[in-house]
Amino acid sequence: MAHIVVLGNEKGGSGKSTTSMHLFAALSRCGHQVGVIDLDLRQKSFFRYLENREAFVKRTGTKLPMPVREVLDYSTLDSVSAAQAEEETRFADALNRLDETCSFILIDCPGSHTRYAQMAHAAADTLITPMNDSLIDFDLLARLDPETGKVKGPSVYSEMVWKARQLRASAGLKPVDWVVLRNRISTLNARNKRRVGSALQELSKRIGFRVIPGFGERVIFREMFLSGLTLLDLKDTGEISLNISNLAARQEVRDVVKALQLPDVKLKF
């Protein structure tokens, strides 16, 4: 069966779509067929990134790996229960179709709470929660005491993940591997950076997730969106030079994929 990787949190601007694109490119270059679903049905940043990639391939004739896409829509039924049942069926059917040909399925969730997002979290074998390295984004995971900096309790999002874990357990599925990805980590040993790090380590023991370093704050990630490229494509396309900063960013991608410990993934880039 395909290994399902879900990119989820309930805050925008954390790097979910960028992470999804680079993870798809990495898995493809490791020899895997990848299926993708974008559940952000309003902005569709992940699929817009892929559309830009298709346009680049058509314009330049460059051969680049592409995923198998499944497009979902919200139900338009008036009954809440009927709409929910229809969306559950659509989601399950999409997973089944991708499972026939793909060894990995990537699902990019919206920065909001939806029924589709709930289902994706319950289906996840690996859950990746990208977060910017700030106390504002830490609030996504838990509430902090403003005086002591101690964790007071889990957030609404953490409680949603907990419920998803319970659903998996009741269905006899293996536990989800929850990974928090710290993006935009400052190179300075700032007080905020230390506080976030300490709070994450404390919380990880309480609610059960792993913490790994993500991507730095680099202009290159924003530059590549319009062409639909990733750092793993630059050597093949020659569109953007591989300077020292870009090589360092490429190494960050390697480190993230390695730290995720996904099954049957041997780095080939």
Strand content: 15-25%
Structural class estimated from helices and strands:
alpha/beta
Order of helices and strands: EHEHEHEHEHEEHEHEHHH
Query: In order across it, which strands form the biggest sheet?
Result: 3-2-4-1-5-8-9
The mean pLDDT is 90
- What is the total tally of β strands? 9
CATH top level?
A: Alpha Beta
Distance separating the two termini: 25 Å
Overall shape: it is globular
Largest sheet: 7 strands, parallel
- The whole-angstrom Rg is 19 Å
CATH superfamily: P-loop containing nucleotide triphosphate hydrolases
Could you say how many structural domains there are in total?
Answer: 1
Query: What's the total helix number?
Result: 10
